[in-house]
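User: Predict the structure for this protein chain, please.
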Amino acid sequence: MKIKYPYKIFITTSLVIVSILCAGCMDNSSNNHNISKNNDTITVTDFLGRTVEVPKSPDHVICSGPGALRYLSYLEAQDKIVAVDSIETEESKFDARPYALANPQFKKYPVFGEFRGNDDPEKILALEPQPQVIFKMYSTSGYDPVELQKKTGIPVIALNYGDMVNNKADMYNSLRIMGEVMDKEKRAEEVITFFDNAIADLNERTGDVPEEEKITCYVGGIARSGPHGFQSTEPTYPPFLFTNAKNVAYDPKNLTTADVSKESILGWDPEIIFVDLSTTQSEDKSSAVYQLQNDVSYKKLTAVQDGKVYGVLPYNWYTQNQGSILADAYFAGKLLYPEKFEDVDLESKTIEIYTFLVGKGDEEVGRQVYEKMINAFSIPAFTKIEV
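Assistant: Here is the predicted structure, written as structure tokens:
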């Protein structure tokens, strides 16, 4: 059928107009998207109760204080940092931080301040590119977050690190806040679920063991701001709590590390002894290993006489490394309840933990971190110590 000439003009003109309008809509849509992205902000309430407005999914951030960069690494957003605190670039004979071992590139970043939150506003202002957000952990120590925000003009989000036992809600809230800011909400929930599932698995395996059948145990040489001797322990040691172990030093009122008397240890006479290998940094008489090998009193302990003294990974290293806590828990479980953990291969389990938390799903990275952690000290972790 022939279309009459006037109709041809009408149709052609209409198509041109529609085409122009569509092109205009596409251009406007694209511009609006860019503007929306550049001006998209969210408001969060930090752990000091401050309302802080920050860019949504910022491209440039820094992490101040113990554990802040660890949590960002858990969220797989560590590529957004533009600088690090001094601990990340230090050359040290010992390092038991899985997140740092998995990210050797941290050593090449500029430094914005000293470790433990002692930030330098001038160095921060000199960074190029400038951070859009500062995540600050342990805000009561180091540079005050309110003053830091005033000095730099950069939003500072104060967070509480929490822990896996008594302050789990704080830990999860910090992960969720960071996840919301970094557009990593899904990953934050995956990390939280990973922790919950691991703890539940450990508890399910050991929760029904009768009290009278449990083997008594003790952990010594627990680190706190450096290495300590055999009398340094943790009354609420998480690997023991998660496996329902019979910790002879257990005290529900003491939620931190503590020094116990030699007399108490001798009186408890644990059947199995675990030693936090951070103690071997001392390399002298203050080392828990040296004390067990040379103190006549400790030679009388049942665990020493039976050759049941084992090294475990330190996890208090620039605050708690949760992956190492879980690895230690599975190791403790296999020793204390072999039949309950027959299906667990400790090496595979530990690699799985590090692969998920700090390896971005790359098993080879998880394996490399595992090897470095196991051999970080003069005595390999998860092995018998000759005393």
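Residues 46 and 129 are 25 Å apart (CA to CA).
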